[in-house]
Amino acid sequence: MSTELINKALETASETKAISFGKDVNKETGPMFVELFPDSKVLVVADENTYAAVGDAVVSSLKEAGVEFADEPYVFPGTPTLYGGYENVEILREVIRPYENTVVVSLGAGTLNDIAKLASGELERPYINVCTAASVDGFAAFGASIAKDGFKITRSCPAPAGLVADVDTMVNAPKRLTATGYGDLIEKIPAGADWILSDELGIEKIDPYTWSLVQGPLRDSLSDPVAIANGGEEAITKLGEGQIMSGLAMQAYESSRPASGAGHQFSHVWEMEGHGLDWEPPLSHGFKVGVGTVASCAMWEVFLDMTADDFDVDKALAAVKSPEEVEANVRASLQEHMQEEAVKHSLGKRMEGDALVARIELLKEKWPTIQERCRQQLVTAQEAMDMLKGAGAPYHPEMIEIDWDRFRETHFKSQMIRPRYTILDILTDLGLLEEVVEKLFSPDGFWGQHKHPEA
To answer: Which of 291, 244, 240 lies closest to 264, judged by CA?
Structure first.
């Protein structure tokens, strides 16, 4: 295991000052707290599951380091599993507020960490996270992915001042949590292609440093999905390293762009529609992202097989909807609580006239370079399926109980909900999104040939 990449990235991190990543590092929580906050008290925050995993070790470490406790640990119920809604942020924020000169140490990787991160951020207080599973990349990231009034976005708040990520804890975490981490991380592959496209079209230029933090270790982190499914220490260590680097990239860029593309937007649609939230445990973010990754890779395959002659300016101009039509389409497609933000984003991305012509002409000019760069970046949809299958993660919509018609419609809904430019948007600009989706779902298309999960 090498921590060289993490230590180098930490030197330029804007908010995270210390990371302990390795074997038997939960005991380093206390010394880290004293180093970062020598005059502060601590409040440990967990849920019943994460406290059972590392609570005693972390509390003992803090006590042995002489840290004063503001109160007993605050522990959310473990069943039903905690859901990342803003109401829980408000609950925790008001728990924390009366404790002066107190820093939270959160025990968790995904939801619990996001709740503690945003609650602390709203009070303008730092916090430390002790990771309990290799289940997401957000435990080292700027921002918290939280739903408010039913609309899920990444809300601005500082990354943890300190991070403890124990390999043994990750290895011993439930297998479904490790599999969901693989599903979250694999989407960085097509997300990279989305950023390349945006870069070449002059919409959002690639930042080479944050690109390297994500893409540098990514293939190695994903290289042995079967070993990850089997609890292999080396493979899970690499997975955790990739997640930490991804989080540090988002922290440095102050956006999820380096680590999130169209595949994540599939997941966000289903999350905002409430899909799987009433399951126990709830359907995880990474399981949905994994299916979205396959969908994104499938769209990219069709797109990259096109030639510049397929990019018909007249066809694109004829396909442009008026602002009123765009708004009506969004409102007809999405649930009410999703509509206002989606209308804003959809209208913000809408192009027409000379601006649209200029974008398509630039696409034609850049097409050989875009094809070359994106083909080098991407895996095929079948390869993405095989990787997810090896890791024990869902790779087909049926596996997360998304029916065929709903899955097809998500290709259009996903384009509406974010301002970020992706494969969904270039196909929309070209007037080709519906045509590409139709091709994918035809009998000879990728989804037509994969109507059910492989045996």
So the answer is: 291
Domain boundary among 142, 173, 204: 173
Answer for the pair 256, 141: CB distance below 8 angstroms, yes or no.
Answer: yes
Q: Are strands 18-22 and 162-166 parallel, antiparallel or unpaired?
A: parallel
Task: Answer for the pair 327, 343: CB distance below 8 angstroms, yes or no.
Answer: yes
Domain of 429 in residue numbering reads as 179-449
DSSP assigned state of 69: B
Report the domain count for the chain: 2
Q: Which two tokens stand for residue 165?
A: 């990520």
CATH code where residue 220 lies: 1.20.1090.10
Contacts of 35 by beta carbon, 8 Å cutoff, 6+ apart: 18
Quick one: 291 and 328 in the same domain?
A: yes
Give the span between the Cα atoms of 93 and 90, in whole angstroms.
Answer: 5
Same domain, 331 and 225: yes
Residue whose tokens read 């930042």: 207
Tokens 């939801």 identify what position?
111
* Helical spans, DSSP H, in 254-396: 262-272, 285-304, 313-319, 323-333, 336-349, 353-377, 381-391
CATH number at residue 47: 3.40.50.1970
Strand bridging mode 144-148 / 151-155:
antiparallel
DSSP 5-66: HHHHHHHT-SS--EEEEETT-GGGHHHHHHHH-TT-EEEEEEEHHHIIIIIHHHHHHHHHTT
> In this structure, is the dihedral angle defined by the CA atoms of residues 133, 276, 300 and 384, taken in order, positive or negative?
positive
Give the other-Cβ count within 10 Å of 181's Cβ: 31
* 223 & 343 share domain: yes
pLDDT at 2: 56
Measured from the Cβ of residue 238, the count of other Cβ atoms closer than 10 Å reads: 22
The domain boundary residue, chosen from 131, 156, 173: 173
- What's the rounded Cα separation, in Å, for the pair 437 and 442? 9
Rounded CA-CA distance 38/34 in Å is 4
Per run of 10 residues, the mean pLDDT along the chain (length 455 residues) is: 75 88 97 98 96 97 98 89 81 96 94 92 96 88 75 78 96 96 98 98 97 96 98 96 93 91 97 90 94 98 98 97 98 96 97 98 98 98 98 98 98 97 98 98 98 86
What pLDDT does 1 receive? 42
313 φ/ψ angles, rounded to the nearest 5 degrees:
-60, -45
pLDDT of residue 110: 83
Judge whether 63 lies within some domain.
yes
Q: What is the pLDDT of residue 233?
A: 97
Whether 454 is covered by a domain: the verdict is no
| Exposure class string for 72-81: b at 16+ Cβ within 10 A, else e | ebbbbeeeeb
